[in-house]
Specification:
The chain is of the alpha/beta class. It folds into two domains: 77 residues; 138 residues, no CATH class. It has five helices and eight strands. The chain has a five-stranded mixed barrel with strand order 2-4-5-8-6.
């Protein structure tokens, strides 16, 4: 039978365990705090998804008046379901590239067309997705005249990043949905500071296809939290195993 470590041996082991203990304590605290942070992010994301669903699924309301536009805050209107009427300026339609269309249809474009309201102001309407091979044909196709009555979701301007290619306004090709840029190029004013994504039309089979708004935002925060907590438990297990091994070595010597 292995004898217990002597007092001197225990003191030596405790000295050897000081820095591993401090490392485990600090690293474990960091891992646990990251797990707790992910739980907070989970609660935030679930609240955001609930807010998106409540706004998008609500009965449509009137578009904010032009006088309210300068004071609008994206957090207050994003995904708001609205109804509006006006006349499309089809000759000013632009294409916005998207790497993936709805239901895995591959790369294509969103058709964005200015709509002139009765007040004379303009709103950029995302009429929906078209496959890349049909984009030019559909973008230049003759369209019905008269007033259009639309339902859709308000969305803020799409932000650029360092990887976003440069727009080509002369070709009518863009890589972000930014109404200010489109309005400036075509000299349309006043221009709404938001875009309307039209709803999918029930029973419609042609192009463009509406309802392109992404509502199912990724929500992996619980998995991330469990990963951080699991690493903390694993680290603790490694340290405990290390402690037992050191005391066993001291007892055997």
């Amino acid at each position: 039978m292995t004898s217990a470590a002597s007092p001197a041996g225990r003191q030596s082991v405790l000295r050897q365990l000081l820095w591993p203990f401090l490392f485990t304590l600090v690293a474990g605290a960091i891992l646990v705090s990251l797990g707790v942070w992910q739980l907070h992010r989970l609660a935030w994301k679930e609240g955001l998804l609930a807010q998106i669903a409540a706004r998008a699924d609500a009965p449509p309301v009137a578009l904010p008046d032009v006088g309210e536009w300068p004071r609008l805050v994206p957090e207050d209107y994003d995904y708001r379901h609205v109804v509006l009427s006006g006349r499309f300026a089809y000759d000013k339609t632009v294409l916005v590239f998207v790497p993936e269309g709805p239901t895995g249809t591959g790369p294509g474009y969103l058709l964005l067309t200015p709509l002139q309201l009765g007040s004379g102001a303009y709103v950029i309407i995302n009429r929906g997705y078209v496959p890349a091979e049909l984009s030019k044909k559909l973008g230049n196709a003759a369209q019905p005249a008269g007033e259009a009555h639309l339902f859709g979701l308000m969305r803020p301007p799409q932000q650029r990043n360092i990887f976003t290619p440069a727009d080509q306004p002369a070709k009518g090709e863009y890589f972000t949905r930014d109404p200010a840029l489109i309005g400036t190029y075509f000299h349309l004013a006043p221009m709404a500071p938001f875009v309307i994504d039209v709803d999918v039309t029930p029973g419609a089979s042609g192009w463009p296809k509406g309802g392109t708004t992404q509502r199912d935002l990724p929500n992996n925060h619980m998995n991330y939290a469990l990963t951080w907590f699991g690493l903390a438990v694993g680290l603790l297990g490694v340290f405990v195993s290390f402690v037992f091994r050191k005391f066993a070595e001291a007892a055997a010597s």
